[in-house]
């Protein structure tokens, strides 16, 4: 998929999910999971270094996004958004991603036999990795601009209505 189409899809998704700045990645995951009818569970995990920073495991009941717990919050958000890029594009495992290979001892609530897909973030040489990374970058670029340009909504209901009526209508670019 071309970058222009990825940008359109991201913009449409963020608007459909009513995601407002500042970007809250766990809230985005929660709303996307609700829209898809399958929760997205965020799993901080001590992934081996060097190795993948993130992993998406799809089961019938939930999507699990594992991300490196030993890094900064902003890096974790980027890792999570990368894995969401795979989910949004409905990518499939490429055959080299057996969860036990890079997640020793799956958490007890994940039945290894029920794993339908497992993608791990390693490099961007393949098209699906580039696409997922582009989704993460697009969302974070927009969020970084909007987080600093859109004034915070007023706590008072009447004042918020005035802000909505008279304020600059910036949204996801």
From TrEMBL:
It comes from Amycolatopsis minnesotensis. Gene3D superfamilies: 1.10.10.2910. It comes from the Bacteria. This is IrrE N-terminal-like domain-containing protein.
